[in-house]
Amino acid sequence: MSYRIYKNSIKQKTSNALFEYVLRICKFYNPKIFRNKIFPKKWTDQKFISKMTLLRKNKKTFSSIYKSIQISNELKKVPFENNLQKIASNYLKVNEKNLSIRDIQLRMDFPNDSRNSYGWHQDNAYDEFNLNSKNGVILWIPLVDTNKDNGALVIKKGSQYSSFNCSKRISKGDDYNSEQILVKPKYLKKYRDAHIDVRKNNCLATYSGIFHKSGVNLSSHIRFTLIVRYNNQLSKD
């Protein structure tokens, strides 16, 4: 099985609390843009999206905001408050006490953005925690409904058990551009593409070695996505 979707993997109140935290961080770094603003539609509010797009033009400030969010307590507590380890345990078919959590990340994919988009890649090529792809799981949890228009996840069906030796480092990345460790072209030809639509707060779970990438966001909205990675730390690999 290339992937599985788990419904209602996080609570709506978790999403709302995370939105309010992101808003506080943005106000802290640039109070002028976000002063006394109310965004009733939260992640999909067009005024909020316009403000975020304006804020992002300052690469240094936006990089600071992004990094602050990734190490925040508000983000780190999401897996524990929503028992995401149970999804990881179910998918990997291991006792949840055997799991390690590699990280949690909030991605913000802007319309027609290429600055921090990834080509075809494998998560296990970045961490190299397990030789066997079946001992690592990626939980991809959008905070907005995703589809082909706003860049739903694209996977290569059948590639989920691949070793990270299928990938090669292309660029190291810097403060404003993501590191790129991409699947070698000769391996991509073996599998067909599949675009996976996922509703907000649902979780797409798949193995850490699957070939995947985000589609291009052609919508007028930002695609906000939580990504949580677990590994079986007591496996022999």
Share in β-strands: 15-25%
Helix content: 25-40%
Low-confidence stretches: none
* CA distance, first residue to last residue: 21 Å
Sheet with most strands: strand arrangement: 1-8-3-10-2
What shape does the CA trace take? globular
Number of helices: 9
Q: What is the makeup of the main sheet?
A: 5 strands, antiparallel
Global mean pLDDT: 93
H and E order = EHHHHHHHEHEEEEHEEEE
Query: What is the alpha-carbon Rg in Å?
Result: 18 Å
* Number of beta strands: 10
Note the quaternary state here. single chain
Class of secondary structure makeup? alpha+beta
Observed structural traits:
about 240 residues; alpha+beta; globular; 9 helices; 3-stranded antiparallel beta sheet; 10 strands; single chain
How would you portray this structure in words?
A hairpin with an 8-residue loop joins strand 5 (167-171) and strand 6. It is globular and about 55 Å long. The strands form three sheets. Strands 1-8-3-10-2 form a five-stranded antiparallel beta sheet. The protein has a three-stranded antiparallel beta sheet with strand order 7-4-9, with no helix packed on it. The protein is built from nine helices and ten strands. It has 237 residues and is of the alpha+beta class. Helix 1 (12-29) packs antiparallel against helix 4.
